[in-house]
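Notes from the 1:1 (GR / supervisor)

We went over the backlog. Supervisor wanted to see one worked example end to end before approving the batch request, so GR pasted a single chain during the call. The sequence is below; no edits were made to it. Supervisor asked that the structure be written out right there so they could see what the output format looks like.
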Amino acid sequence: MKHQGAARFALSMGVVAAFLAAGCRGLQPNPATQTVSAAAAGPAIKITNAWVFISDPGSAQVFIYTLPRLKLIEIATGFTQPQGECSDDKGDVWVTDGAAKTIYELEHSGKLVKQLSDAVGAPIGCAWDPKTGNLAVMNFLGSNSQGGAVLVYHHGSGVPNLYYNPKLFNYEFGGYDGAGNLFFDGVGTDRKFILSELAANATQAKTVKVSGAKLHTPGMVEWDASANDLVVGDQNCSNLSASCVYRMTIAKNGATISGQTNLENAEGRQVCDMIQGVLWNRSIVGSDFDFCGSGSSATYVWPYPVGGKPHSENAHNVSQPFGAAISVRPMRDSP
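Structure output shown during the call:
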């Protein structure tokens, strides 16, 4: 069985290699502007307000599914290697593309709204601050294979401010709490997991001590306002080829793990690799990049915090699923 952490790192480094090879080359003309309507080709699909965007660097596409049934509705194309995602308060989804050194803003339909350039590294994850309207982007690596950084774009535009945790080398996924504090994960030069916090108005991020379990491979980071805790994924749970999600209570002296959610595929086996999931309506929505066994990669909706078997699945589209973000259609667009 292939070790999950090694495969996950290889996937990230593949994107970085493409980023380095691109150098100063210009972006593709009109990237991410095309969408393919999947609904028109099949039976009628009931349109819901909530959709999930699943990025797939393997096919260079973003698949858009209805929730909770996971019916394919649209496919956004024109990316190089789309990875981590986040959504804003307009219902738009931001997609990082490390190979293109670009962050794309897509509206609910999947059409391009605008794009941001990342001149200092390879973006891999992002987070939207509902308090300030700022967009944080995590760079896996900087230029010339240097360490990554957090880039904060004021109101999702312009030239970003850069922030660092001196102990961190690869920056990955992040999420804001309601007070404007950004939590993000990554690894140091020793490849050990590190959780960081960039407090509101701070000029430098700090390491957050985690107690209660040892995390191995960075995954999703999201603030759960309903429980007042931080949800952090581990793609290499217990150092095995299986993903899980931890609930953490945040205090001044660090983070304490208060619970663990294990996720299963449709066959009842623990998922191999959920790179990034997202909370939605007492569920976790994400995909299993199943390189561990003979099963297919698939997108799922799992009950949360119970976990276990999924409520819904779609195993017909993705090859190397990576990011996940929820788009809720604004009420003015509702039928």
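Supervisor's comment: Confidence is low (pLDDT under 50) at residues 1-7, 15-33, 39-45.
Batch request approved.
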